[in-house]
Fold this sequence. Notes:
There is one protein chain. Helix 1 packs parallel to helix 2 (47-65) and helix 3 packs across helix 4 (122-138). The chain has one domain (2-225): LmbE-like (Rossmann fold, 3-Layer(aba) Sandwich), CATH 3.40.50. 43% of the residues lie in helices and 16% in strands. It has a 7-stranded mixed beta sheet, with helices on both faces. It has helices spanning 9-23, 47-65, 84-98, 122-138, 146-150, 179-187, 190-193, 199-212; strands at 2-4, 29-34, 69-75, 102-106, 160-164, 171-174, 219-225. By secondary structure, it is α/β, with parallel strands linked by helices. It starts with a strand and ends with a strand. Strand 2, helix 2 and strand 3 form a beta-alpha-beta unit. It binds zinc ion. The site of zinc ion has 5 residues, from loops.
Amino acid sequence: MAxxxxxxxxxxxxxxxIARLVHQGTVVSYVLCTSGNRGTSDLAxxxxxxxxxxxxxxxxxxxxxxxxxxxxxRHDDGDLAYAALPLRQELTRLVRQQRPDVxxxxxxxxxxxxxxxxYLHPDHRAAGQxxxxxxxxxxxxxxxxxxQIAAGLSPHQVAALYLMMSDNPDGCxxxxxxFAAKVxxxxxHHSQWGRQPDLEGFFRCMAEQAGARWGVPLAxxxxxxx
Length: 226
Ligand SMILES: [Zn+2]
Protein backbone atom coordinates (compact mmCIF):
# COMPACT_ATOMS: atom_id res chain seq x y z
CA MET A 1 0.00 0.00 0.00
CA ALA A 2 1.42 3.34 -1.07
CA UNK A 3 0.14 6.22 1.07
CA UNK A 4 0.93 9.55 -0.55
CA UNK A 5 -0.03 13.19 -0.18
CA UNK A 6 -0.80 14.13 -3.79
CA UNK A 7 -1.45 12.76 -7.27
CA UNK A 8 1.99 12.24 -8.90
CA UNK A 9 3.88 11.64 -5.61
CA UNK A 10 3.77 7.85 -6.02
CA UNK A 11 4.93 7.92 -9.63
CA UNK A 12 7.74 10.40 -8.92
CA UNK A 13 9.10 8.83 -5.75
CA UNK A 14 8.37 5.14 -6.12
CA UNK A 15 6.87 4.55 -9.59
CA UNK A 16 9.74 2.34 -10.71
CA UNK A 17 9.51 0.28 -7.53
CA ILE A 18 5.75 -0.12 -7.91
CA ALA A 19 6.09 -1.24 -11.54
CA ARG A 20 8.67 -3.77 -10.41
CA LEU A 21 6.49 -5.05 -7.56
CA VAL A 22 3.50 -5.43 -9.87
CA HIS A 23 5.66 -7.22 -12.44
CA GLN A 24 6.72 -9.66 -9.71
CA GLY A 25 3.07 -10.39 -8.89
CA THR A 26 2.58 -8.13 -5.87
CA VAL A 27 -0.80 -6.46 -5.54
CA VAL A 28 -0.33 -2.72 -4.96
CA SER A 29 -2.94 -0.23 -3.79
CA TYR A 30 -2.75 3.55 -3.50
CA VAL A 31 -4.15 5.87 -0.85
CA LEU A 32 -4.21 9.52 -1.91
CA CYS A 33 -4.56 11.83 1.10
CA THR A 34 -5.38 14.83 -1.09
CA SER A 35 -6.36 15.09 -4.72
CA GLY A 36 -3.99 18.01 -5.26
CA ASN A 37 -6.93 20.39 -5.50
CA ARG A 38 -4.78 23.54 -5.21
CA GLY A 39 -1.94 22.55 -7.51
CA THR A 40 -2.40 25.09 -10.29
CA SER A 41 -1.46 28.62 -11.34
CA ASP A 42 -4.47 28.82 -13.71
CA LEU A 43 -6.82 31.58 -12.50
CA ALA A 44 -9.74 30.03 -14.43
CA UNK A 45 -9.41 26.65 -12.71
CA UNK A 46 -11.66 25.73 -9.80
CA UNK A 47 -10.74 23.38 -7.01
CA UNK A 48 -13.49 20.94 -7.98
CA UNK A 49 -12.39 20.92 -11.63
CA UNK A 50 -8.81 20.32 -10.56
CA UNK A 51 -9.86 17.45 -8.29
CA UNK A 52 -11.66 15.77 -11.19
CA UNK A 53 -8.75 16.33 -13.56
CA UNK A 54 -6.03 15.17 -11.19
CA UNK A 55 -7.93 12.06 -10.05
CA UNK A 56 -8.39 11.15 -13.72
CA UNK A 57 -4.67 11.68 -14.34
CA UNK A 58 -3.85 9.63 -11.24
CA UNK A 59 -5.99 6.70 -12.39
CA UNK A 60 -4.33 6.78 -15.81
CA UNK A 61 -0.83 6.97 -14.31
CA UNK A 62 -1.50 4.13 -11.87
CA UNK A 63 -2.97 1.99 -14.65
CA UNK A 64 0.31 2.34 -16.57
CA UNK A 65 2.10 0.80 -13.55
CA UNK A 66 -0.53 -1.92 -13.07
CA UNK A 67 -2.37 -0.38 -10.13
CA UNK A 68 -6.15 -0.06 -10.15
CA UNK A 69 -7.06 0.07 -6.44
CA UNK A 70 -6.97 3.76 -5.49
CA UNK A 71 -8.64 5.40 -2.49
CA UNK A 72 -9.02 9.17 -2.64
CA UNK A 73 -9.46 10.69 0.83
CA ARG A 74 -9.88 14.23 -0.61
CA HIS A 75 -8.41 16.29 2.17
CA ASP A 76 -7.55 19.82 1.08
CA ASP A 77 -4.20 20.18 -0.64
CA GLY A 78 -1.79 22.05 1.65
CA ASP A 79 -3.85 21.58 4.81
CA LEU A 80 -3.02 17.96 5.59
CA ALA A 81 -1.17 18.78 8.81
CA TYR A 82 -4.42 20.20 10.20
CA ALA A 83 -6.28 16.96 9.46
CA ALA A 84 -3.79 14.80 11.35
CA LEU A 85 -6.21 12.95 13.62
CA PRO A 86 -9.00 12.20 11.13
CA LEU A 87 -6.36 11.23 8.58
CA ARG A 88 -4.71 8.81 11.03
CA GLN A 89 -8.11 7.28 11.77
CA GLU A 90 -8.91 6.85 8.07
CA LEU A 91 -5.51 5.32 7.34
CA THR A 92 -5.87 2.94 10.28
CA ARG A 93 -9.23 1.80 8.89
CA LEU A 94 -7.79 1.25 5.41
CA VAL A 95 -4.84 -0.74 6.79
CA ARG A 96 -7.20 -2.93 8.81
CA GLN A 97 -9.41 -3.44 5.75
CA GLN A 98 -6.72 -4.03 3.10
CA ARG A 99 -4.15 -5.68 5.43
CA PRO A 100 -1.01 -4.77 3.47
CA ASP A 101 2.37 -6.40 4.21
CA VAL A 102 4.35 -3.28 3.33
CA UNK A 103 3.62 0.44 3.36
CA UNK A 104 5.40 2.91 1.11
CA UNK A 105 5.03 6.50 2.28
CA UNK A 106 6.82 9.83 2.73
CA UNK A 107 9.58 10.01 5.33
CA UNK A 108 8.23 12.23 8.13
CA UNK A 109 11.61 12.28 9.91
CA UNK A 110 13.35 14.88 7.81
CA UNK A 111 16.90 15.77 8.77
CA UNK A 112 18.96 18.55 7.23
CA UNK A 113 16.85 21.18 5.52
CA UNK A 114 17.84 20.33 1.96
CA UNK A 115 15.72 20.84 -1.13
CA UNK A 116 15.06 17.15 -1.60
CA UNK A 117 13.48 16.39 1.75
CA UNK A 118 9.81 16.33 2.47
CA TYR A 119 10.05 19.82 3.97
CA LEU A 120 9.51 20.80 0.36
CA HIS A 121 5.77 20.40 0.86
CA PRO A 122 4.08 20.35 4.28
CA ASP A 123 1.63 17.70 3.09
CA HIS A 124 4.44 15.21 2.50
CA ARG A 125 5.57 15.39 6.11
CA ALA A 126 1.96 15.28 7.36
CA ALA A 127 1.02 12.29 5.17
CA GLY A 128 4.15 10.43 6.26
CA GLN A 129 3.55 11.18 9.93
CA UNK A 130 -0.07 10.02 9.83
CA UNK A 131 0.85 6.92 7.80
CA UNK A 132 3.68 6.04 10.18
CA UNK A 133 1.47 6.40 13.26
CA UNK A 134 -1.48 4.56 11.71
CA UNK A 135 0.59 1.64 10.49
CA UNK A 136 3.20 1.26 13.23
CA UNK A 137 1.04 1.96 16.28
CA UNK A 138 -2.68 2.23 15.66
CA UNK A 139 -3.67 -0.51 13.19
CA UNK A 140 -2.23 -3.28 15.36
CA UNK A 141 -3.65 -1.99 18.64
CA UNK A 142 -7.30 -2.87 19.30
CA UNK A 143 -7.76 0.07 21.69
CA UNK A 144 -6.98 2.52 18.89
CA UNK A 145 -10.31 3.31 17.22
CA UNK A 146 -12.19 0.45 18.91
CA UNK A 147 -15.30 1.40 16.91
CA GLN A 148 -13.53 -0.08 13.88
CA ILE A 149 -12.93 -3.33 15.80
CA ALA A 150 -16.53 -3.36 17.04
CA ALA A 151 -17.64 -2.98 13.41
CA GLY A 152 -15.83 -6.20 12.50
CA LEU A 153 -12.31 -5.17 11.50
CA SER A 154 -9.34 -6.96 13.07
CA PRO A 155 -6.07 -5.35 14.18
CA HIS A 156 -3.30 -5.63 11.60
CA GLN A 157 0.45 -5.16 11.95
CA VAL A 158 2.39 -4.33 8.82
CA ALA A 159 5.82 -5.93 8.41
CA ALA A 160 7.70 -2.92 7.09
CA LEU A 161 7.58 0.67 5.96
CA TYR A 162 9.57 1.99 3.03
CA LEU A 163 10.01 5.73 3.60
CA MET A 164 10.53 7.70 0.41
CA MET A 165 11.90 11.23 -0.03
CA SER A 166 14.14 10.42 2.91
CA ASP A 167 17.08 12.48 4.07
CA ASN A 168 18.58 9.27 5.39
CA PRO A 169 17.92 6.47 2.89
CA ASP A 170 19.55 3.18 3.80
CA GLY A 171 18.92 1.27 0.61
CA CYS A 172 17.57 1.47 -2.90
CA UNK A 173 15.52 -0.45 -5.42
CA UNK A 174 16.99 -0.92 -8.89
CA UNK A 175 14.50 0.56 -11.37
CA UNK A 176 16.61 0.20 -14.52
CA UNK A 177 14.03 -2.14 -16.06
CA UNK A 178 11.00 -0.07 -15.05
CA PHE A 179 12.34 3.47 -15.49
CA ALA A 180 10.57 3.91 -18.85
CA ALA A 181 7.25 2.89 -17.28
CA LYS A 182 7.85 5.34 -14.45
CA VAL A 183 8.45 8.23 -16.86
CA UNK A 184 5.34 7.33 -18.88
CA UNK A 185 3.31 7.28 -15.67
CA UNK A 186 4.63 10.70 -14.62
CA UNK A 187 3.74 12.02 -18.08
CA UNK A 188 0.14 10.99 -17.42
CA HIS A 189 0.04 13.78 -14.83
CA HIS A 190 -0.24 16.23 -17.69
CA SER A 191 -1.55 19.16 -15.60
CA GLN A 192 1.62 19.08 -13.51
CA TRP A 193 4.32 17.92 -15.92
CA GLY A 194 2.99 18.75 -19.39
CA ARG A 195 5.30 21.74 -19.79
CA GLN A 196 8.48 20.12 -18.46
CA PRO A 197 10.86 20.30 -21.45
CA ASP A 198 12.97 17.22 -20.66
CA LEU A 199 10.94 15.04 -18.34
CA GLU A 200 12.93 11.89 -19.12
CA GLY A 201 16.27 13.61 -18.49
CA PHE A 202 15.04 15.27 -15.30
CA PHE A 203 13.95 12.00 -13.75
CA ARG A 204 16.90 10.05 -15.14
CA CYS A 205 19.19 12.46 -13.28
CA MET A 206 17.15 11.95 -10.10
CA ALA A 207 17.30 8.14 -10.47
CA GLU A 208 21.06 8.22 -11.12
CA GLN A 209 21.63 10.28 -7.99
CA ALA A 210 19.43 7.95 -5.92
CA GLY A 211 21.42 4.89 -6.97
CA ALA A 212 24.94 6.36 -7.00
CA ARG A 213 25.70 5.49 -3.38
CA TRP A 214 24.97 1.81 -4.02
CA GLY A 215 26.39 1.55 -7.53
CA VAL A 216 22.94 1.07 -9.07
CA PRO A 217 22.46 2.85 -12.42
CA LEU A 218 18.83 3.93 -11.94
CA ALA A 219 17.17 3.64 -8.55
CA UNK A 220 14.67 4.86 -6.00
CA UNK A 221 16.09 5.18 -2.47
CA UNK A 222 14.21 4.44 0.73
CA UNK A 223 14.64 4.30 4.45
CA UNK A 224 13.42 0.90 5.60
CA UNK A 225 11.67 0.44 8.94
CA UNK A 226 10.76 -3.03 10.13
ZN1 LIG B 1 3.43 15.91 -3.38
